């Protein structure tokens, strides 16, 4: 059974950067066949897609993060990354990793505040 573990969240000032990681474990097949996504959920709001990346490497971003965030994957390491630059207070949320159609990680908190 595949499990996902996010890391890299924290407190950062506006304009700063963070790099989130999502490491998959528990499957002999790895993440290579899956579309992997990063989602976020702010207090009182619905969970929303931030970015995803297909098995072939095609990427898709929410309009609110285009030009600031970059999703990437390293299938050999079974890891997906989210590089977040020029962070804004409105990026504050719990960030979740998702594999395929329904496997979620536990989330990592990102807080952007001065």
Helix content: under 10%
The whole-number mean of residue pLDDT values reads 94
Outline type: globular
**Terminal residue distance:** 40 Å
Strand content: over 45%
Protein structure class: mainly beta
Number of helices: 0
SSE string, helices as H and strands as E? EEEEEEEEEEE
Largest sheet: 7 strands, mixed
Low-pLDDT sequence parts: none
Rg to the nearest angstrom?
13 Å
Structure description:
This protein has 114 residues and is an all-beta fold. The protein has no helices and eleven strands. It has strands spanning 3-7, 10-12, 18-25, 36-41, 48-53, 59-61, 69-74, 79-84, 93-99, 103-104, 108-112. The strands form two sheets. Strands 2, 4, 5, 6, 9, 10 and 11 form a seven-stranded mixed sheet that branches. Strands 1-3-8-7 form a four-stranded antiparallel sheet, with no helix packed on it. Strand 9 (93-99) and strand 10 (103-104) form a beta hairpin. It starts with a strand and ends with a strand. The mean pLDDT is 94.
């Amino acid at each position: 059974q595949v499990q996902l573990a996010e890391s890299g969240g924290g407190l950062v000032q506006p304009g700063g950067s963070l790099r989130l990681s999502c490491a998959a474990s528990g499957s002999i097949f790895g993440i290579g066949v899956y579309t992997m996504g990063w989602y976020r959920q702010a207090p009182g709001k619905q969970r929303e897609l931030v970015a995803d990346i297909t098995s072939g490497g095609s990427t898709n971003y929410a309009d609110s993060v285009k030009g600031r965030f970059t999703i990437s994957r390293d299938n050999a390491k079974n890891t997906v990354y989210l590089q977040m630059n020029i962070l804004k207070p409105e990026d504050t949320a719990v960030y979740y990793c998702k594999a395929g159609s329904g496997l979620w990680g536990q989330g990592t908190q990102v807080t952007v505040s001065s």
